[in-house]
Design a protein that fits this description.
The structure is a single chain. The protein is mostly helical. It has 10 helices and 6 strands, in the order βαββααβαββαααααα. The strands form 2 sheets. The protein has a 3-stranded mixed beta sheet. Helix 8 packs antiparallel against helix 9 and helix 8 runs parallel beside helix 10. It is elongated.
Length: 261
Protein backbone atom coordinates (compact mmCIF):
# COMPACT_ATOMS: atom_id res chain seq x y z
CA UNK A 1 0.00 0.00 0.00
CA UNK A 2 1.16 3.52 -0.81
CA UNK A 3 0.48 6.20 1.78
CA UNK A 4 0.92 9.04 -0.73
CA UNK A 5 -2.38 9.54 -2.53
CA UNK A 6 -4.11 12.40 -4.37
CA UNK A 7 -7.22 13.41 -2.40
CA UNK A 8 -9.35 16.47 -3.19
CA UNK A 9 -12.63 17.77 -1.71
CA UNK A 10 -15.73 17.33 -3.81
CA UNK A 11 -16.46 21.08 -4.00
CA UNK A 12 -13.16 21.83 -5.74
CA UNK A 13 -12.98 22.54 -9.43
CA UNK A 14 -10.70 20.74 -11.86
CA UNK A 15 -8.49 23.83 -12.22
CA UNK A 16 -7.92 23.92 -8.44
CA UNK A 17 -6.81 20.31 -8.41
CA UNK A 18 -4.48 20.91 -11.37
CA UNK A 19 -2.91 23.96 -9.72
CA UNK A 20 -2.38 21.98 -6.54
CA UNK A 21 -0.61 19.19 -8.43
CA UNK A 22 1.59 21.72 -10.24
CA UNK A 23 2.56 23.44 -6.99
CA UNK A 24 3.52 20.30 -5.09
CA UNK A 25 5.47 17.18 -5.86
CA UNK A 26 2.71 14.71 -6.61
CA UNK A 27 3.24 10.94 -6.43
CA UNK A 28 2.72 8.67 -9.39
CA UNK A 29 -1.01 8.09 -9.70
CA UNK A 30 -3.67 6.45 -11.86
CA UNK A 31 -6.75 7.94 -10.21
CA UNK A 32 -7.75 11.08 -8.32
CA UNK A 33 -9.88 10.40 -5.26
CA UNK A 34 -12.65 12.70 -4.09
CA UNK A 35 -13.77 13.09 -0.46
CA UNK A 36 -16.38 15.08 1.44
CA UNK A 37 -15.77 17.69 4.14
CA UNK A 38 -15.15 14.94 6.70
CA UNK A 39 -12.58 13.29 4.40
CA UNK A 40 -14.85 10.32 3.70
CA UNK A 41 -14.38 8.64 0.36
CA UNK A 42 -16.98 9.56 -2.28
CA UNK A 43 -15.58 8.55 -5.65
CA UNK A 44 -12.67 8.68 -8.06
CA UNK A 45 -11.64 10.15 -11.40
CA UNK A 46 -9.46 8.19 -13.80
CA UNK A 47 -6.39 9.99 -15.10
CA UNK A 48 -7.60 9.67 -18.70
CA UNK A 49 -10.90 11.29 -17.73
CA UNK A 50 -9.30 13.95 -15.54
CA UNK A 51 -7.14 15.43 -18.31
CA UNK A 52 -10.18 15.76 -20.59
CA UNK A 53 -12.33 17.67 -18.08
CA UNK A 54 -13.10 21.36 -18.39
CA UNK A 55 -11.26 23.53 -15.90
CA UNK A 56 -14.49 24.85 -14.36
CA UNK A 57 -16.02 21.41 -13.83
CA UNK A 58 -16.63 20.42 -10.23
CA UNK A 59 -14.91 17.24 -9.12
CA UNK A 60 -18.22 15.99 -7.72
CA UNK A 61 -19.71 16.23 -11.21
CA UNK A 62 -17.03 14.31 -13.09
CA UNK A 63 -16.15 11.67 -10.50
CA UNK A 64 -17.31 8.08 -10.68
CA UNK A 65 -19.24 6.92 -7.64
CA UNK A 66 -19.47 3.23 -8.52
CA UNK A 67 -15.88 2.43 -7.54
CA UNK A 68 -14.45 -0.25 -5.30
CA UNK A 69 -12.75 0.71 -2.06
CA UNK A 70 -10.64 -1.73 -0.04
CA UNK A 71 -11.27 -2.07 3.72
CA UNK A 72 -8.06 -1.88 5.70
CA UNK A 73 -8.55 -5.35 7.21
CA UNK A 74 -8.79 -7.23 3.89
CA UNK A 75 -6.34 -10.05 3.17
CA UNK A 76 -4.00 -10.06 0.18
CA UNK A 77 -5.94 -12.78 -1.63
CA UNK A 78 -9.19 -10.79 -1.32
CA UNK A 79 -7.54 -7.68 -2.75
CA UNK A 80 -5.98 -9.64 -5.60
CA UNK A 81 -9.31 -11.25 -6.44
CA UNK A 82 -11.08 -7.87 -6.55
CA UNK A 83 -8.45 -6.36 -8.85
CA UNK A 84 -8.69 -9.34 -11.19
CA UNK A 85 -12.51 -9.47 -11.13
CA UNK A 86 -13.08 -5.77 -11.86
CA UNK A 87 -9.86 -5.18 -13.84
CA UNK A 88 -8.82 -2.32 -11.56
CA UNK A 89 -5.78 -0.10 -11.99
CA UNK A 90 -5.87 1.35 -8.49
CA UNK A 91 -8.20 1.39 -5.50
CA UNK A 92 -8.27 3.40 -2.26
CA UNK A 93 -7.79 1.78 1.12
CA UNK A 94 -10.31 3.03 3.69
CA UNK A 95 -10.68 2.69 7.45
CA UNK A 96 -13.87 1.81 9.30
CA UNK A 97 -15.11 5.42 8.89
CA UNK A 98 -14.60 5.32 5.09
CA UNK A 99 -11.63 7.70 5.28
CA UNK A 100 -8.82 7.09 2.80
CA UNK A 101 -5.56 5.97 4.40
CA UNK A 102 -3.70 4.91 1.26
CA UNK A 103 -3.95 3.45 -2.21
CA UNK A 104 -3.13 0.08 -3.76
CA UNK A 105 -2.16 0.01 -7.43
CA UNK A 106 -1.97 -2.79 -9.95
CA UNK A 107 1.83 -2.68 -9.58
CA UNK A 108 1.49 -3.60 -5.90
CA UNK A 109 -0.90 -6.43 -6.75
CA UNK A 110 1.44 -7.80 -9.44
CA UNK A 111 4.31 -7.93 -6.95
CA UNK A 112 2.12 -9.84 -4.50
CA UNK A 113 1.05 -12.29 -7.22
CA UNK A 114 4.66 -12.87 -8.31
CA UNK A 115 5.77 -13.50 -4.73
CA UNK A 116 2.83 -15.85 -4.12
CA UNK A 117 3.46 -17.83 -7.30
CA UNK A 118 7.16 -18.18 -6.48
CA UNK A 119 6.34 -19.25 -2.92
CA UNK A 120 3.78 -21.85 -4.04
CA UNK A 121 6.16 -23.18 -6.69
CA UNK A 122 8.93 -23.65 -4.14
CA UNK A 123 6.56 -25.29 -1.65
CA UNK A 124 5.75 -27.93 -4.26
CA UNK A 125 9.36 -29.01 -4.02
CA UNK A 126 9.55 -28.64 -0.25
CA UNK A 127 11.87 -25.61 -0.34
CA UNK A 128 11.61 -22.03 0.88
CA UNK A 129 12.96 -18.69 -0.27
CA UNK A 130 14.99 -18.38 2.94
CA UNK A 131 16.88 -21.63 2.27
CA UNK A 132 19.67 -19.65 0.61
CA UNK A 133 20.61 -18.06 3.95
CA UNK A 134 20.04 -21.11 6.19
CA UNK A 135 22.68 -23.51 7.41
CA UNK A 136 23.17 -26.92 5.83
CA UNK A 137 21.50 -28.72 8.75
CA UNK A 138 18.37 -26.53 8.76
CA UNK A 139 18.00 -26.73 4.99
CA UNK A 140 18.39 -30.50 5.05
CA UNK A 141 15.81 -30.95 7.82
CA UNK A 142 13.37 -28.67 5.98
CA UNK A 143 13.56 -30.75 2.81
CA UNK A 144 13.67 -34.12 4.53
CA UNK A 145 9.89 -34.26 5.12
CA UNK A 146 9.10 -34.19 1.41
CA UNK A 147 11.81 -36.73 0.64
CA UNK A 148 10.41 -39.09 3.28
CA UNK A 149 6.94 -38.84 1.74
CA UNK A 150 8.42 -39.73 -1.64
CA UNK A 151 10.30 -42.68 -0.13
CA UNK A 152 7.16 -44.00 1.59
CA UNK A 153 5.18 -43.72 -1.64
CA UNK A 154 7.89 -45.56 -3.57
CA UNK A 155 8.10 -48.31 -0.92
CA UNK A 156 4.34 -48.87 -1.02
CA UNK A 157 4.47 -49.11 -4.81
CA UNK A 158 7.31 -51.61 -4.60
CA UNK A 159 5.37 -53.71 -2.06
CA UNK A 160 2.39 -53.88 -4.39
CA UNK A 161 4.62 -54.98 -7.26
CA UNK A 162 6.30 -57.55 -4.99
CA UNK A 163 2.89 -58.94 -3.99
CA UNK A 164 2.17 -59.72 -7.65
CA UNK A 165 5.69 -60.92 -8.40
CA UNK A 166 4.59 -64.41 -9.45
CA UNK A 167 1.95 -63.05 -11.79
CA UNK A 168 4.46 -60.66 -13.36
CA UNK A 169 6.93 -63.52 -13.76
CA UNK A 170 4.54 -65.43 -16.00
CA UNK A 171 3.14 -62.35 -17.74
CA UNK A 172 6.20 -60.20 -18.32
CA UNK A 173 4.30 -58.07 -20.80
CA UNK A 174 2.59 -56.42 -17.83
CA UNK A 175 5.97 -55.15 -16.60
CA UNK A 176 6.66 -53.46 -19.93
CA UNK A 177 3.30 -51.70 -19.87
CA UNK A 178 3.36 -50.59 -16.21
CA UNK A 179 5.06 -47.20 -16.84
CA UNK A 180 2.41 -46.31 -19.44
CA UNK A 181 -0.51 -46.74 -17.07
CA UNK A 182 1.31 -45.04 -14.18
CA UNK A 183 2.33 -41.98 -16.20
CA UNK A 184 -1.04 -41.44 -17.87
CA UNK A 185 -2.93 -42.01 -14.63
CA UNK A 186 -0.80 -39.41 -12.86
CA UNK A 187 -1.38 -36.92 -15.65
CA UNK A 188 -5.14 -37.44 -15.38
CA UNK A 189 -5.01 -36.63 -11.67
CA UNK A 190 -2.90 -33.51 -12.25
CA UNK A 191 -5.41 -32.22 -14.79
CA UNK A 192 -8.36 -32.61 -12.42
CA UNK A 193 -6.43 -31.09 -9.50
CA UNK A 194 -5.26 -28.11 -11.57
CA UNK A 195 -8.78 -27.27 -12.72
CA UNK A 196 -10.12 -27.55 -9.16
CA UNK A 197 -7.35 -25.42 -7.63
CA UNK A 198 -7.78 -22.70 -10.25
CA UNK A 199 -11.55 -22.68 -9.73
CA UNK A 200 -11.03 -22.28 -5.99
CA UNK A 201 -8.48 -19.49 -6.46
CA UNK A 202 -10.78 -17.51 -8.77
CA UNK A 203 -13.79 -18.25 -6.52
CA UNK A 204 -15.62 -19.89 -9.42
CA UNK A 205 -16.03 -23.06 -7.36
CA UNK A 206 -18.33 -22.78 -4.35
CA UNK A 207 -20.85 -24.85 -2.40
CA UNK A 208 -23.59 -24.08 -4.92
CA UNK A 209 -21.84 -25.54 -7.97
CA UNK A 210 -19.52 -28.06 -6.30
CA UNK A 211 -21.78 -31.03 -7.12
CA UNK A 212 -22.05 -29.97 -10.77
CA UNK A 213 -18.26 -29.49 -10.94
CA UNK A 214 -17.61 -32.92 -9.40
CA UNK A 215 -20.07 -34.60 -11.77
CA UNK A 216 -18.43 -32.95 -14.76
CA UNK A 217 -14.93 -34.05 -13.72
CA UNK A 218 -16.13 -37.60 -13.07
CA UNK A 219 -17.81 -37.69 -16.49
CA UNK A 220 -14.69 -36.38 -18.23
CA UNK A 221 -12.47 -38.92 -16.43
CA UNK A 222 -14.84 -41.78 -17.27
CA UNK A 223 -15.00 -40.80 -20.93
CA UNK A 224 -11.24 -40.34 -21.31
CA UNK A 225 -10.50 -43.44 -19.24
CA UNK A 226 -12.82 -45.61 -21.31
CA UNK A 227 -11.56 -44.22 -24.62
CA UNK A 228 -7.86 -44.56 -23.81
CA UNK A 229 -8.41 -47.85 -21.99
CA UNK A 230 -9.84 -49.39 -25.14
CA UNK A 231 -7.01 -47.89 -27.19
CA UNK A 232 -4.26 -49.15 -24.88
CA UNK A 233 -5.94 -52.53 -24.61
CA UNK A 234 -5.96 -52.82 -28.38
CA UNK A 235 -2.31 -51.77 -28.53
CA UNK A 236 -1.38 -54.38 -25.93
CA UNK A 237 -3.23 -57.10 -27.86
CA UNK A 238 -1.43 -56.21 -31.10
CA UNK A 239 1.88 -56.13 -29.25
CA UNK A 240 1.68 -59.33 -27.15
CA UNK A 241 -1.10 -61.27 -28.93
CA UNK A 242 -2.67 -62.01 -25.54
CA UNK A 243 -6.25 -60.98 -24.84
CA UNK A 244 -5.74 -61.29 -21.07
CA UNK A 245 -2.90 -58.75 -21.07
CA UNK A 246 -5.02 -56.42 -23.19
CA UNK A 247 -7.99 -56.67 -20.82
CA UNK A 248 -5.81 -56.12 -17.74
CA UNK A 249 -4.10 -53.04 -19.16
CA UNK A 250 -7.31 -51.50 -20.53
CA UNK A 251 -9.25 -52.16 -17.34
CA UNK A 252 -6.40 -50.92 -15.19
CA UNK A 253 -6.17 -47.60 -17.00
CA UNK A 254 -9.94 -47.11 -16.81
CA UNK A 255 -9.88 -47.68 -13.04
CA UNK A 256 -6.89 -45.34 -12.59
CA UNK A 257 -8.65 -42.50 -14.42
CA UNK A 258 -11.84 -43.05 -12.45
CA UNK A 259 -9.94 -43.05 -9.17
CA UNK A 260 -7.98 -39.86 -9.85
CA UNK A 261 -11.11 -37.72 -9.36
Amino acid sequence: MQSEVLIFPDHWKVIQALEHMRSYHTPRFYDVFVVDDERRFLGSIELSTFVKCQEEDLLSEVMTRSVHAIPMDWRQDEITFMFRLYELISAPVIDKDARIIGVITVDDVMRVIEDKVAEDFMHLGGIHASDFHKTVSKTSLGRLNWLLITVIDAVLTSLVIHFFEKVLHFKQGLIVLMPIAAAMGGNSGIQAATVAIRALATKELNTLNSVRFLWKEVSVSCFNGSLLGVGLGGLAFLWFKDIRVALVLGGRYCLICYGQV
